[in-house]
Amino acid sequence: MNNTQSKTRAKWIVGIIIILLLTALGSQSIYPQDLELKYPLGDIPLDPITYQRHLKFQPEVALLGALPASYDARDEGIVTSPKDQGSCGSCWAFASVGAMESHMLKQYGFGPTDLSEQQQVSCNTSMAGCNGGSSSAIRYWQRRGPLYESCFPYTADDSTPCIEDQCEQLDYRVVGWHTVPATPDGFKNSLYYDGPSYWRYDVYSDFYSYWDHGRAGDVYVNSGGGLLGGHAVLLIGWDDAKQAYLCKNSWGGGGPNNDGTFWIAYVGHARDLGFGMANFNLEAVGCSSDAECSDGLYCNGAEGCVDSVCEPGIPPGCGDDGLFCNGSEFCDEAGDACASTGDPCATGTICDEGQDLCIPSDCGNDTCDLGENCATCPDDCVSGQGGTCEDCFKGECDGSCHPVKDGPNCADCLPSYCCGDGVCEGEETTGSCAVDCGASACVPVKKTCDCDSECGKFESSETCPWDCP
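The structure assignment produced for this chain is given below.
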């Protein structure tokens, strides 16, 4: 076990000891009165072994895909409004419920809903109510459904009896709960592909000053202070320009951005803040028809009801059609069809399907113009025999190159030339291939190239093609 793992495990053990002591003293809430915290906390980090055991790495297709430089899940309409946990250390319940609300929106287009945090506080006996909990609280919904807030309102009190059986349980269950690699790429990939979810960090005293006095857009970077405890929030975005994550808090609608959110730096903190994340997928249950399972999105495929369980659809196969001039294929949600980006060629060029090339529009005028070459316009920039026989052994071309005997410009050793390749060679001249042999392109070099249109003693077609075509 390395130093980082040891420190993380030590923090976890301290958190567990605090919970046990408080339970022995009567399970009185430690947030905020006992520690005189201005804002309640409540996250107890998973122990390092558990976190490692449940790690899920993104599939290669996701890792190869370029993530945007910035992302805000609110732009997709999959983040619900911020709430206030009051004086109870139940941030873990609010982060869990926020994740459930977002996943219902992202996967099934259901909502926005206001789900009950009190269900977690009062009914999830694997957690410690107002004395804290962890990201594994989300697993409570593997066998039970979430409840509406209207049926089981939040009381900020873990002595409130569980009335789960008196409420309608929504037909969604958690599947595939997992932890996330604690790196910027790990967090961003999980948020982008799986959805907003439970994200935790350690709170030091300077964070309260940032929350109260920070300005919109300010990024929190820990500068020190005393450790106050762990806190759970909902990770909803990032901005690489800021080098920061965007989080939805559970301390009401205030904070530096005045909307219940805040920015926290990827790295550069004076203390190890112990970042961690858990995420999951949802499965809809209790359906009786395919229509109940449909999310209305063509590109997700047609969802269906199988054995009273909603199964995800199979996305339409919008793969490459093999046609260069159609551009790239993609799923067009607006048109409910597979579509192509269209002609990939720029203005002034023509798409040639046979060669998979963009051909200059003036190709075919018998002149190898600027921008044309043998590949893009073979009709004007014809390949031909290069070199001379005079430079071959005994001044004769025999069809075979003899590197030891033949000179560097022997036609047998220079099988072809191409106007437009940037080299004035073979039969090319200023008149026949101005692109390669234009006089204006000549740069005088002492002795080897005078640029005077006369082939001097020390000049050759190789050192000065402008004078010695």
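Interim note for the steering committee: The two ends are 72 Å apart (CA to CA). Residues 18-36 have pLDDT under 50 and may be disordered.
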